[in-house]
Specification:
Strands 1, 2, 3, 6, 7, 8 and 9 form a seven-stranded parallel β-sheet that branches. A two-stranded antiparallel ribbon has the order 4-5. Strand 1, helix 1 and strand 2 form a beta-alpha-beta unit. It is of the alpha/beta class and about 250 residues long. Helix 1 packs parallel to helix 6. It has a single domain, classed as Alpha-Beta Barrel (TIM Barrel), CATH 3.20.20. It is built from eight helices and nine strands.
């Protein structure tokens, strides 16, 4: 089976600097998709770009809070709602989904979440319900799409690892991808006074994602770039092709 790669940037809308890096990676690099944080200061600008550039698939990056590693433990940088409060999480997810549609005049092409809060309930079940209702993939929950988070420039204790964002490292990640569809998570951008702990690493991501060496590697590895916009179409075509070949044999 062929290998298809969705390169998705989290945090679209976090700030104007992050938007600039994501747009650069989309216009000049291998980025094919992005996930929008509708609550953040750059959301309107990000939505404006997305409306004018429908080739970039844009999903909903659910934002329930952010945690930073300090003094040996993870502590809240900010909290939108209590992630253990079912009613509050459900209401906030619906509010962000509604705001997304207001900004882009269409539903998201996929759903994921800031710092993967949807990996645990109640956010997981609520996000699954929304994804099923609108018929879009949910990160790590949709059959047929693997998720790769290896292209990330910090360790488990938020220490910077610049070598993890090098061209050589990304080439190695690409070479190890399985057959079928993979979503490669990334966080390109530029630090314009971000409060988040992931700041200087973002510019390194932009540089690597825009490297001509990466496009060459994709060609040599016969990995085809796609997006959440084209996922269902490509998957259906591949399944139909397999069905035809099996029937012919």
């Amino acid at each position: 089976m062929a290998r298809y790669l969705i390169v998705n940037a989290d945090d679209f809308g976090l700030s104007l600097g992050v938007n600039r890096g994501i747009i650069e990676a989309a216009d000049q690099g291998i980025l094919t998709s992005a996930s929008l944080m509708v609550r953040q200061t750059g959301a309107k600008e990000a939505a404006s770009y997305a409306r004018k550039n429908p080739k970039l698939s844009v999903g909903l990056h659910l934002d329930l809070g952010e945690w930073v590693y300090k003094h040996g433990e993870w502590v809240p940088l900010y909290s939108v709602v209590s992630t253990s409060d079912v009613a509050a999480v459900a209401a906030e997810v619906w509010r962000q989904f509604t705001h997304f549609q207001e900004l882009l005049d269409r539903p998201p092409t996929h759903i994921d979440s800031h710092q993967h809060v949807h990996r645990d309930d109640p956010a997981r079940s609520i996000a699954q319900s929304l994804a099923h209702r609108i018929g879009v993939p949910l990160r790590e929950q949709t059959r047929g799409i693997s998720y790769c988070g290896d292209f990330y420039g910090q360790d488990a204790e938020s220490q910077t690892m610049p070598d993890a964002l090098s061209v050589a490292r990304l080439k190695s990640i690409l070479a190890s991808l399985p057959d079928g569809f993979t979503e490669l998570g990334c966080h390109p951008g530029y630090d314009d006074g971000l409060a988040t702990a992931y700041r200087t690493e973002r510019a390194l991501e932009v540089e690597t994602l825009c490297s001509p060496e990466i496009r060459q590697a994709l060609a040599e590895l016969r990995i085809e770039l796609c997006s959440f916009n084209s996922f269902e179409r490509i998957r259906t075509a591949a399944l139909n092709s397999c069905t035809f070949e099996n029937a012919a044999s």
